[in-house]
Amino acid sequence: MVLAGTFEEAGFAGRFVAGPGDVLLHGAFDCHANRPLTRRSLTILRLPWSDNLLEGLFHVPDPDALAVLAERDVEAAAAQLRIHLTRRASLPLHWTERLQQALSSDPCVRLEGWAESENLAPETVSRGFRRVFGVAPKVFRLESRARQAWNRIPGTRSTLTEIAADFGFSDLAHFSRAVRALTGAPPSFWQARGALARQVHSS
Fold this sequence. Notes:
By secondary structure, this protein is of the alpha+beta class. The chain has helices at 63-72, 74-84, 95-105, 111-117, 122-133, 137-152, 160-166, 172-183, 187-202, and strands at residues 2-4, 7-11, 14-18, 22-25, 33-36, 43-44, 56-59, 86-87. The protein has two domains: 2-87, no CATH class; 95-202, Homeodomain-like (Arc Repressor Mutant, subunit A), CATH 1.10.10.60. The strands form three sheets. It has a three-stranded antiparallel sheet with strand order 3-2-5. The protein has a three-stranded antiparallel sheet with strand order 4-7-8, with no helix packed on it. The longest helix is centred in the last third of the chain and has 16 residues, at 137-152.
């Protein structure tokens, strides 16, 4: 939650400009780039957040009250944050943001074809996207796909082979390498952890 200052952040959920009262929610393993937009020093309150599926730019009406509450009880402040969150209205997307959405939603999107549809040179697309998001489009696509697949593992009884196929990985080995590179552990680790959590929850 931003208490003072303004900055830009780009990650798996998109590119956002956040100022006082704005809240940026991140799921696990979000790799993002950020940069200040004003000379005024940033003041940010970090609160615990465990919902990997609710991400993006939100707003709260009274950030100072949440900051005061967090000094006494961080968990209570996080609970109040969830109650008062409202999603910020979407602004017209820059082409880098449209590409981010395409890369996140379609594992088979061809960069050359996408660049042509936007009347952009492939070199412009690669350089411009890296400048905003901190990584090349192909790397972003692989990491985004691995993260979406990883999010599926704990809550499903699907096999890892089925999940790999659902997210466009060529085989289980490719899927395993991508998830391990992003999270530090292979899919089998997260599958076992999810099964244990379900067992504990049902007992």
